[in-house]
Amino acid sequence: MRSIETFSQQSFFNLIIDCTQTKNIALGKTLHAQIIKTGKLTCTYIANSLVNFYSKCQHLSQANTAFQDIQEKDIVSWNSIINGFSQLGGSHNSFFVLKLFKLLRKQSGVFPNAHTFAGFFTATSILGDGFAGKQGHSIVIKISGCDDVFVGSSLVNMYCKSGLVQDARKVFDEMSDRNSITWATMISGYATLRLADYALELFRMMMWEMEEGVNEFVLTSVISAFTLKEFIDIGKQLHGLVIKFGLLSFVTVGNSIVTMYSKCGDLDYAVKSFELADDKNSITWTAMITGFAQSGDCFKALALFSKMHFAGMKASEFTLVGVLNACTDSKGVEKGMQVHGYLVKLGFESQIFIMTALVDMYAKCGFVGDARKGFYYLQKPDIVLWTSMIGGYVQNGDNESAIDLYCKMQEEGILPNELTMASVLKACSSLAAFEQGKQIHAHTIKFGFGLEAPIGSALSTMYAKCGSLEDEALYVFCVYCDVAHTGVFTLRFCYFEIHST
Q1: For the stretch 336-351, what's the b/e string if a residue is b when 16 or more beta carbons lie within 10 angstroms of its beta carbon?
Q2: Among 8, 72, 373, 393, which has the highest number of CB atoms less than 10 A from its own CB?
Q3: If you average pLDDT over residues 465-469, what whole number do you get?
C-alpha cells in the first residue's frame, strides 16, 4: 500500500477536491496535516484548494487560517476566501468580505476579477450597503466595465437589495448580455418595492426579448418574485402560464407555486397545488409547512411535518426552521424540544439561522433559559440572533438582561438593526430607565436610524413612560407623529394620561 508521504502535489490536490465534493472534513484535515508535514503547502494551487475545501464545508475559521498561511496569494486565493464568507451570508461574514476586498486592493500585482466582484456585491447586498456597493461599481468600471453578465447580475442584485432600484435599472439597461437570472433579479427588485406595474412591464419585455424563450428556470425565478399578498392575482396569472407552457411537471416550478401561494396567504390554493404535485421533494413539503406556520395554523404545520417524516422524506434545515416557527407557544414547546433533538442528530446545530429559530421558539414559549443556552452555543452570533435573544428577554420581562446583552453586543462591535433598537428601547420603557433610554436614543442617531416605525414608536413610548417633556422628547413626539400621519396631541394625551395619576 502506497504511503501518503510519497503522494505527489497533484495527488494531494485531487484528494482535496474529492473531499470538497463529498464534504469529508475529517479526511480533509488529515490531508492538510500531511501537506504541511511534507512541505507541499508552499505550492499555491494546493493551498488554494485547502481554502476552497474549508470554505465549501463552512469551516470559515480554518479557511481563513489556511488563507493566511499562503505565502504567495494569487487571485484564486482571494476569490476562494471572499466567496466562502459571502456565500455563507450573515452580517459578520459580509463585513469580513468588505475587509478582505479592501486588503486585496492594496496588493500589488493582484487584481479583482468577475468572481471577486460577485462575492463582494453579494456581501454588500446582504448588508444593504449601497454606498460600499457603489464604490465597488466604480472599481468595476475602471478595471473591466460591466459587460460580464455575472458581474452585471451581481450589481443589479446589490442595488435592488439596497433599495436603489433606479441604479439597478440603469445597470440592467446598460448590460449588453442578460440571462434569466438578471431578468428575474430586476423583476424581483421591483416586486419587493411593491412596484408591480414596472415588474409586469419588465416580465413582458423579457418574454419578448429572451431568445431561449420561457422555460422552467425563468418562470420559477419570476414566480418567486411575486410573493406579497397584493400580488396574488399576478401569481395566479403566472400559474396559468405555467399550465399553458406545460411546465407544471417540473418540481422546481411546482415548488415555486406552492411557495408563492403560501407567502401570499392563499392556503387553499397552496394546498391544492401541493396535493396535485406528483413529484414532491423536501422543498415542496417545507413550503407547505412554512405556509401553515406563517398563517398561525401550527397544528396543521406539525401534522404535515409528521406526515413528511413517515413518508420517508428527509427534512432539510429549512424544513426545521419552518417547524420551529410553528412551535412558538406553550402548547408547541414539547414538539419544539423534539425538533431540537432531531436537528442535533442531523448535525444542524451549528447553522446560525436554525439556532436563531430555536432561540426564538424557546423565548416565545417562555423558556428563556433554554433560549440563552442556544444563543451562547454559537461562538459568533450574527445581528439577527443577537436581536432574537434581546427580544426574547424583553418578551419574558427580563429587561435588565436585555439591556446588558445589548451593551455586550456593542462591546463586540456588532452593529444593531431597527428591531434591535426597538427591543432595547422597549426594555428601557418597561424599567422607566430614562438615562439609559437617552443613551439608546443617541445610538439610533449615531447609527443613522430615522424615526419611522418601529424606532419612532418605541422612542415615543419610552419618553412618555419615563415622564420626559425635554426638547429631545418633544422632537421625537412631533417628528414621529408626522411620519406616522397621526396627531401629536394623541401622544401628548398618552403622556398626560400616564403621569396624571
Answers
A1: bbebbeebeeeebeeb
A2: 393
A3: 67
Domain span at 438 = 407-501
The C-alpha atoms of residue 480 and residue 378 are separated, in whole angstroms, by: 37
Backbone angles phi, psi at 307, to 5 degrees: -65, -40
What gap in Å lies between CA 72 and CA 50, rounded to an integer? 14
464 in any annotated domain: yes
Please tell me the distance from the alpha carbon of residue 51 to that of residue 29, in angstroms, as a whole number.
12
To the nearest 10°, report the CA torsion of 108, 109, 112, 115: -130
CA angle 211, 215, 217 (to 5 degrees): 110
pLDDT at residue 477 is higher than 70: no
d(CA 497, CA 331): 37
pLDDT of residue 230: 86
The set of residues, in sequence order, having a beta carbon less than 8 Å from that of 233 and lying 6+ positions away, is none
Domain assignment present for 476 = yes
Which of 111-120, 321-330, 464-473 reaches the highest mean pLDDT? 111-120
Q: Which of 60-69, 136-145, 261-270, 404-413 shows the lowest per-residue confidence on average (mean pLDDT)?
A: 136-145
C-alpha cell at 223: 414566480
CA 61/CA 19 separation, integer angstroms: 18
Q: Can you count the helices (H) and strands (E) in the chain?
A: 29, 0
Question: Residue 470 has which C-alpha cell?
Answer: 425635554
Radius of gyration of the chain (CA): 25
Instruction: Note the pLDDT of residue 386.
Output: 94
How many domains does one find in the chain?
A: 1
Report how far Cα 145 is from the mean position of its chain's Cα atoms. 28
Distances (CA, A) of 36 to 5, 69, 451: 11, 10, 55
**370 within some domain:** no
pLDDT digits (tens, 9 = 90+) for 166-191: 999 999 999 888 888 888 889 888 88
Mean pLDDT of 457-484: 61
pLDDT band with cut points at 50, 70 and 90 for residue 361:
very high
Return d(Cα 325, Cα 316) in angstroms, integer.
14
Give mean pLDDT, residues 423-430: 92
Chain-centroid distance of CA 411 in Å reads 24
Cell of 442: 443617541
Q: Considering the domain boundaries, does residue 8 fall inside one? A: no
- Please state whether the peptide bond connecting residue 454 to the residue before it is cis, i.e. omega within 30 degrees of 0: yes
Helix (H) or strand (E) holding 357: helix 352-364
